[in-house]
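Quarterly update from the structural biology core.
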Amino acid sequence: MSATDAAETTAALSVDEPIGSTDAAAGLFTPITIRGLTMRNRVWVPPLCQYSVDARDGVPNDWHLVHLGAMAAGGAGLIMAEATAVSPEGRISDHDTGLWNDAQADAWARITRFLRSQGAAAGVQLAHAGRKASVWPEPTRRRGSQPLDEGGWPTVSASAVAFDGLREPAALDEAGIAAVIDDFRTAARRAIAAGFDLVEVHAAHGYLVHQFLSPLSNLRTDDWGGTLENRARLLLEIVRAARAEVGEAMPVFVRFSATDWSPGGWDEAQTATVAGWASDAGADFFDISTGGLVASADIPIGPAYQAHFAEYVGERSDVPVSAVGRITNARHAEELIATGRADAVMFGKAMMRDPHFALRAAHELGADTTMWPVQYLRARPEVNDGEW
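Predicted structure, tokenized:
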């Protein structure tokens, strides 16, 4: 199916219908409904890897509760938990969170209960790192693959092509690909048990699904490589599997890197086409980032440097999208929403610096501030001479 064909299937949908797209009056603090889930605003927290599972068992802990909980109390509409591995070998590092067993789901349930109690929706990014797995966790400040005799593990990918500076992966065979799809399926099932309101398939930043999508890392000549349809097959099978598990009411997101920033690689046109196919397969919303596949890519980082990719994908495939990347100004974010360039904005480092960024943004924009926690009402600017 072409991107045009996919666009025709979603063109009539609006924010008030069960999918989510911006109308002319939308703003940063306008609620948005996607399938059976309504989010109170469009100030969203993207997946932010914390590398903080010191027990190396994939079980989230008090750090994750406080880290994510502060942003929920701070007014965000959606909190997306960090890249959470669907299998032990799918972790970026041995300090990552997971959803491959019930103990992990039980620990996540404690966190999602708190997020929802504060009025935020709780999402989780389901991930497999592929050839970028088994690296040293960020806080250690060590770089490269973690040696097998120091806790590392063999990695896999679409093809036996290493990411710069990391060990060479093994190319997945048919059985291995089927196992990955099943791992995403069962992780989506556990996400429901854990109390998450939506799941996101990680197809960005050079991790496994992105490795299949890009012709720079996928050199296969079978049904999983070569043509765009074949390279997109793993993503579409995962989306279908996730949709079958979560049912019709729960949203399924996909995070894309819209470009590899490298000649001959994955780009925004392919992203838009595959977003249309993924929408047909059951995905509802597309979180548009860039990069991560090529270590040497020259990325022109600056304010909102990725927002035009979100706009491109949204327009070409007529799907709802979020923008992310160096967006730190509430009025700029409001403009992105109001002009229809994005349907939501992900604030990453801005939220890490200030977990109450959403409350601050609402104050700056003169928006409704009823999402203030009752414990903090006496701190509102309205009762403190307007001072933040």
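Residues 67 and 352 are 8 Å apart (CA to CA).
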